Amino acid sequence: MKPPIITPDRKSTGAIAWMARNPVTANIVLVILLVGGLINLSRTRQEIFPEFQLDFVTVTVPYPGASPSTIENSVLLALEEAIDGLEGVKEVNLSARQGVGSAMVELNLGVNADKVLADISNAVDSITSFPQDAERPIVTMPSAQSEVISLVLHGNVSETTLRYWVDKARDELLQHDAITRVEVMGSRPKEVAIEVPSHYLLSYKITLQTIANRIRAAWAEIPAGDLQTSSQDYNLRTDDPLPLVQFADIAVARNSSGSLVRLSDLATIRDSFADTGESALFNGEPAMMIRVFRRGKQTPITVADAVKDYADALRSRLPYGLDV
User: Fold this and answer.
1) Is pTM, for the whole model, over 0.70?
2) Which of 111-115, 205-209, 304-308 has the highest mean pLDDT?
3) CA torsion, ordered 268, 270, 276, 282, to nearest 10 deg
């Protein structure tokens, strides 16, 4: 019995049929696609989260030493008047804290963000009522940045020791070619604490206000902080922070023989940290965190590997009681 003979009644069409009839051309196309895919794969940026631009602009006005109420009256009101009502601006949110005032300007959807940024910058630059001691306003449009990894230093050590090693780790990380941006979290601002027993005030017939005036006179006329007492706060002004040894040498009174009495003769002067009421713990121990971010063409894997290698090397150098 002969096998049946199948004769197609029409010519096959479609991509598969075309490649079957033209195998050489199909193979060339396949090679081109494979080579192109490999080339683009090497150029593909790795991301933890997609990078995008946020729809708001921030304006920051540093005013060192000024209180929040002072900043509100002398800085924020002028900012709001200059920015509110600009085309493309949806809402202006203002905030004041010790030494700095800021405005978060929310933009309308679909606006030209670069144009609005330029308009806000021009409006802020045109403000002439800012206090003379206020620094130049900073106008920026933040973008979402991708945090890659965090490094936590923790242990039952003093805050001064912990802060020293965190600052050291931050500086050394920034020297690495693969790392360009880090942030420290859980660290309180530094300050100088001056404690004067009340019997010295009575003995030399001086007040805390007198001491504050002597410290102020030793510094230039630029805001630098407040001297806080139980009854009153005194604003201090400086050009640059003074080291403790210069604090100690400030003359604040005279004794019965007419000799100068210096601050170190009646006060305890020490480096301290601002009383913010905040603290950070890791496994029940005092801790500070260093956050490491990716920028530009850096990849998360490259940054993470660099931080891990550094952490391994740092661990052997840390003092007893401190770990990473």
Assistant:
1) no
2) 304-308
3) -130
Which residue is associated with the tokens 């023989």? 257
Q: How far apart are CA 307 and CA 291, in angstroms?
A: 10
What's the pLDDT tens digit per position in 30-50? 888 888 887 776 666 655 555
Q: How many whole angstroms separate alpha carbon 299 and alpha carbon 306?
A: 11
